[in-house]
């Protein structure tokens, strides 16, 4: 199972990469494996400011639909539009081309609540 050490994680199986005041967010390799083949990613919160843990979209797999939760408070500034035509990128490259949104976060102290790779592995039993 691929759990990159340089990323941060949430208990909701999302990963976060910090780039200045922007957080790039996607779902983990574990999450995409549990969901199965991703057929649709919906994010209808572009340009909205959300609280941490608010739902920013959904990911739909063949057998289920799961909510996506914002790991940080802030504005959804970009959606990975490539996922509209190729949602399977979430399965094939969850930490690269399969990223979902970019959030301009407004409270850096929330970063302390994100999980390290080690803490996330403990949650998923890795």
From TrEMBL:
InterPro entries: 2-oxoA_DH_lipoyl-BS, Biotin_lipoyl, GCV_H, GCV_H/Fam206, GCV_H_sub, Single_hybrid_motif. Keywords: Lipoyl. The keyword S-adenosyl-L-methionine does not apply. Binds 1 lipoyl cofactor covalently. Gene3D superfamilies: 2.40.50.100. The glycine cleavage system is composed of four proteins: P, T, L and H. This is Glycine cleavage system H protein.
């Amino acid at each position: 199972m691929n759990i990159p050490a340089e990323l941060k994680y949430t208990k909701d199986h999302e990963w976060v990469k910090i780039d200045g005041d922007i957080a790039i967010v996607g779902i983990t390799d574990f999450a995409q494996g549990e969901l199965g083949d991703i057929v649709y990613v919906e994010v209808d919160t572009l340009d909205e400011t959300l609280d941490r843990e608010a739902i920013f979209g959904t990911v739909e797999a063949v057998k289920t639909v799961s909510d996506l939760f914002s790991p940080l408070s802030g504005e959804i500034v970009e959606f990975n539009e490539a996922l509209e035509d190729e949602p399977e990128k979430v399965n094939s490259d969850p930490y690269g081309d399969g990223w979902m949104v970019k959030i301009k976060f407004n409270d850096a102290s929330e970063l302390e609540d994100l999980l390290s790779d080690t803490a996330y592995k403990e949650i998923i039993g890795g």
